[in-house]
Amino acid sequence: xxxxxxxxxxxxxxxxxxxxxxxxxxxxxxxxxxxxxxxxxxxxxxxxxxxxxxxxxxxxxxxxxxxxxxxxxxxxxxxxxxxxxxxxxxxxxxxxxxxxxxxxxxxxxxxxxxxxxxxxxxxxxxxxxxxxxxxxxxxxxxxxxxxxxxxxxxxxxxxxxxxxxxxxxxxxxxxxxxxxxxxxxxxxxxxxxxxxxxxxxxxxxxxxxxxxxxxxxxxxxxxxxxxxxxxxxxxxxxxxxxxxxxxxxxxxxxxxxxxxxxxxxxxxxxxxxxxxxxxxxxxxxxxxxxxxxxxxxxxxxxxxxxxxxxxxxxxxxxxxxxxxxxxxxxxxxxxxxxxxxxxxxxxxxxxxxxxxxxxxxxxxxxxxxxxxxxxxxxxxxxxxxxxxxxxxxxxx
Length: 396
Ligand SMILES: [Ca+2]
Ligand SMILES: [Ca+2]
Ligand SMILES: [Ca+2]
Description:
By secondary structure, the chain is mainly beta. It folds into four domains: 43-164, Jelly Rolls (Sandwich), CATH 2.60.120; 168-199, no CATH class; 211-323, Spermadhesin, CUB domain (Jelly Rolls, Sandwich), CATH 2.60.120; 325-395, Ribbon (Complement Module, domain 1), CATH 2.10.70.10. The chain has helices spanning 7-26, 30-41, 167-170, 390-395; strands spanning 44-49, 53-57, 69-76, 81-91, 102-107, 110-115, 131-133, 138-145, 155-164, 181-185, 188-192, 198-199, 206-207, 213-215, 220-223, 236-242, 247-253, 271-276, 279-284, 292-294, 299-305, 316-323, 325-326, 335-338, 344-345, 349-354, 358-362, 365-367, 369-373, 387-389. It has a five-stranded mixed β-sheet with strand order 1-3-8-5-6, with no helix packed on it. Strands 14-16-21-18-19 form a five-stranded mixed β-sheet, with no helix packed on it. α1 packs antiparallel against α2 (30-41). The longest helix is centred in the first third of the chain and has 20 residues, at 7-26. The relative contact order is 0.09.
């Protein structure tokens, strides 16, 4: 039966001793306080371990450990490793919730395990075969014995070793995981990308080179890379439509539209922006297609930015262009125009010709055909020359 003072009473005692020391020091008895301090802290021994493996055991092991002992081992290994700790021998004084003597294992300020008791009888609190793994590259072990031991307890012996973290398998943080391929090696890992992609300077995400798309045709179609599959991360893409002066570009986004967005902030992650002359459209993101945008420019720059996370499909757009309109040309008498259209616009060509027996007369010469062009200012290059009867021309 234990008749000793338990820990709470001990700490009360220590505290009152401290108070005595404190009062004495205020009264000028400094030496007494210093002695008292070393008494209170005398039991705690702190060790820093930086080796890749090692042994930690209770004092005097395998002889019984002394009472009133506090020891603290701080193990740290290089980044990219974690620490595995296990016990080969364990024999501490048993107690309810290990409040007498114990071994505590902690990491990053969190308690991972508390052990006490005999290996054979106290299966609840002994480590047994358990292997403790630190979440990161440090781990601390503390041992404490109280002021009495009812029997001879031999203490413990444990071993630790640094093991490589397989970041490819154990990566929980999405913000650190490789975008495409992950390669583990001892003490670290690296990422690589599928063919056609480049590793971003974050060494993690895979970007594409997509800044040199130039379209000079009067109409066309383009989209985010991979559309309608997920678009690449960490990319800044540029699509330029460059048409001659006199054309106006109209853009039409496909209904399938999916760009990472935010419920409260306007397109903070990924976005499409359009610059057309002095006008800007966007930023656009989310799931609603911007639809049709009628620009007033012949030069349009579409910019698409994606950040380093998220999985979205992207966008697709087609563009058309229209030129300035020309009034329908006047058909010469006994002549015809080809093609006949409801509307004529910049760059349209019209071929003027005459009915059989008639010839076009232009500057005193007779011609079979004559071509007129709709110009960028909406005027025709010239008017259609008249058709004259061959007979009358010969007779004249
Ligand atoms: Ca004890
Ligand atoms: Ca590794
Ligand atoms: Ca994103």
